[in-house]
Design brief:
Elements: H1 6-20, H2 24-27, H3 37-51, H4 63-72, H5 78-91, H6 95-100, H7 103-110, H8 117-131, H9 141-145, H10 152-163, H11 172-182, H12 191-204, H13 210-223, H14 243-247, E1 263-275, E2 279-280, E3 283-284, E4 287-293, E5 305-306, E6 309-312, E7 320-323, E8 327-338, E9 347-351, H15 362-370
Parallel strand pairs: 1-8
Antiparallel strand pairs: 1-4, 1-6, 2-3, 4-5, 4-9, 7-8
Length: 377
Amino acid sequence: MKYKSFSQKKLQICAFFCNFAPDFGIFSPKFTNFMPNSFVYSNLYRWYESNRRILPWRETEDAYFIWLSEVILQQTRVAQGLDYYMRFVARWPRVEDLAAADEAEVLREWQGLGYYSRARNLHKAAQMIVANGWAPFPTRFEDIRSLPGIGDYTAGAISSFAYNQPYPAMDGNVYRVVARLLDIDEPFDTTAGKKLFHQQIETLLDHAHPRLFNSAIMEFGALHCTPSLGDNCLTCPLQSVCLGYAHGTAELLPVRKPRPKIRERWFTYHIYLQQGQTCVNGQPSEIYTLIRKRENPKDIWYHLYEFPCEESNSEEAFEFTHVLSHQKLHARYIIHKVQKMPEIPGTMLIHWEDLNEYALSRLTLRVLDKLCTILPR
């Protein structure tokens, strides 16, 4: 049967225990791992061989390239991250090249991906690798784990994909697959939940072929055992050993802890345009504008550039809405054509055509695209 909630499931299982008292391990992976791993491996690998996507970071064992892909694909879909990966590899083909770059260059190349702390940590980690003499890339899990921006998942992914070391790679797709396979209703994003999931994946991991196992289970979660299941359970190669399917709870899994309340903010941006004095065919050939660099490390878009901005508590209807993970931004842009630029602390005067040289927030890029008919080209 299918359950509408975990409370209903627990009541039903409790009644089942009272009447029949079956093997407790079947219903609680916290105590017993009953699953035949060989069955999982053979069916999962067969599915992977037929359905895997050909992706550049899968066709290499270069730890530096794999690291780039893992950082770029955090919070990012493959379709979006692929172009960024190719640009990073082309521009900085070695970790030494990335370490020698300016942070502003890295942020500019990252522009549009969001979660910019990933780019800053990427740059810091490259410098740390070079400074410690670990280039082209560290080989020990502990050294990889010590790099800025790298947690257990990323360290495990690099260790297994690059060096075939027996470490699990627990991304969101893997959490979802494991939660459904073992019918785990513990929130996976809590300390207790992460500990439980890691215990289970360590038991499930194919220690003889960790690279293959991690690749296959991640791809399986990305393409088949997706958040919206539809009819995928009916054609699932792991259906016969999936407790989520057996108990009718697969679509309820995985469970997250309650999300924090979304914070709403209202921004008014000012786009100042000043025509230069140099003329070509009687027309001003240069246009200047003002931008500023965001300097608060605890706020959004740290070290990115934007037009001068005022934040208020207004709840008026603003033209642009931009949603981040825990914030909903409302923004409006006012265009000022001036003869002389105002003196605004923290701003800098630049040529309009040089905007592309600065790392801008995704919201600013959206605005420039929307206002392209009335702004300079």
